[in-house]
Amino acid sequence: MGTMEETLKCPVCQDFFIDPVTLQCGHDFCLTCIQAVWETDLSDEGPFFCPECQIFLPSDLTLKVNADLQTKVKDFTTKTLSAAEQQAAASTSETKSSSAICCDQCIEMPSVAIRTCLTCDASLCQAHALLHQQRSALREHTVVEVTSDPLSLKCREHRDELKLFCMEEKVPVCCLCVLVGTHKHHKASQLHEAKADFKSMLETTMNQLLKRRSEAEHAIKDLESLYTQTVTSAAEFRERISDKYSRIHVVLNGDERLMMQIIDAEETCMTEWLEAQRSIVEAQIKEIDAFRASSKSLLQETNDLRFLQQITSQNLCDPLDFAPIREVNRDLCDPEKLRTVERLVDELSVALSQHFPRMWSYLSSPVLDFKTAHPKLELSQDRKQVYWRRQPFGEGQSPQPYDSQYSVLAQESFTGGQHYWEVIVQDKPFWMIGVTTGSVDKKASLSQSSSSLGVNNTSWCIYYGDGQYLACHDTQEKQLSVGKRVRKLGILANLQKGELSFYDADAMRLLHSFCVQWTEPLYPIFNPCIDMNGVNTQPLTLFWIKDPWDWHTREEKSELTGTI
């Protein structure tokens, strides 16, 4: 069968004969193949020769189709392909029509096309594709892999081949587009040059991604180390402080409980934050891996035009601006509050009474009020966190990060007594935290209210931005001298004395105090500030413990029992 099949194939195109002709030397060829070899349509110029035996043939040679050989080819192909044809007939007509692209030059016996000539707008079988390569008049034509839609590879406006790439609009264009079309005066490059440039850029990006992934893995290791360190430190401080309290009078058990809860809350706060940072870095790794996989697949594309079409459709023409892998700041997990607790316990043993009641005794756990949140803010389900909602600004809008109207109130208000609460700011570059009086209409959102935090006579706040701390009230600003960056802000409101104090909640250092007189309910108010370019996405988080110490209730009980 193999020998029979070989005798029915043209030695030029290596396919079954199409209109076979027999030369005087006895060798057979397709009519179009021998004409392509001679680069003539049987003119009288000659010379003619056999490509097999190299024998020169007479100039008056006349080529005639060998009918017998043509019949043998048809019989053989019909016999050998009958089974395949029956199987193809059983498949759906849709599959058949979509997969079979026939040669536009073969008339009597259609052949499967393997190439498409964009110049001729024609699909070509192997023999006619070879003809395009061998004929001098056709060599300049653009021949690509077979496609059912050659117009998709041409300019839709001028129906000309896409031979250039507009570097300004990042799209393939034809020559007319650059000369007289919409891309006139635009900088354009050859397709292969544009591909080389973008391929180089993509390879550089791949190397950068590899480096960033390494940085992310290092950050993960640092976070794991900090996580272990935080848990270990909390355990060590808990053990030492418990031992110190065991040597103090039984009456101090309540204070010990408060201190232990502070440590527990600190540990929970830091471990949750570390886990959140780990999730962020892991998400960056997944994003990097996904982009590397798609880029690797794109780099394997050999067709210039398809490569450029894909790279433009995926918006990869310009170098990607990745957010940097933030180096883990080990100071974020500095157990300063735990050391503060231990220091206070040591001082308590020297002078017990002067430390009671402690500020943490008044620690309350306010929750945020959804009804008062500005539309551009987002609150967590437990109402303990407030974020800047990620959404683009409209045209012409250029808000400042410290715009004071983007705030949310706490649900509860204070009318008397002492109240203390803490807000976790960590490494947020911008934030505003303070209080405002009941003159704010809680039935309307703060975006519709005339109240703006820190810029009228009914609100007091601390603003942090550009590395500076400002105490703000009634359009007045006072710059504060703060040594170490505040990670948690504490606010103490003593309504009887008319004092409002702001503290570094970790070290219990006083930042600033306002002397005020309140005649209306006092509401805590929070402004996470606008996120500019993804640098201020972190939330403001309310610090809380499960069972706050009610100093006044326990003080009353102590008086009844006669204990200190």
From TrEMBL:
Keywords: Coiled coil, Immunity, Innate immunity, Metal-binding, Zinc, Zinc-finger
Pfam families attached to this UniProt entry: PRY, SPRY, TRIM_CC, zf-B_box, zf-C3HC4_4
InterPro entries: B30.2/SPRY, B30.2/SPRY_sf, Butyrophylin_SPRY, ConA-like_dom_sf, E3_ubiq-ligase_TRIM/RNF, PRY, SPRY_dom, TRIM8/14/16/25/29/45/65_CC
SMART domains according to UniProt: BBOX (SM00336), PRY (SM00589), RING (SM00184), SPRY (SM00449)
Recorded GO CC terms: cytoplasm
Ranges where the RING-type domain occurs: 10-54
BP GO terms, sorted: innate immune response
Coiled coil region boundaries: 199-226
Gene3D superfamilies in the record: 2.60.120.920, 4.10.830.40, Classic Zinc Finger, Zinc/RING finger domain, C3HC4 (zinc finger)
GO molecular function: zinc ion binding
B30.2/SPRY domain sequence ranges: 346-542
Domain B box-type: 155-191
Domain of life the protein comes from: Eukaryota
SUPFAM superfamilies assigned to the protein according to its UniProt record, in alphabetical order: B-box zinc-binding domain, Concanavalin A-like lectins/glucanases, RING/U-box
Protein name: Uncharacterized protein
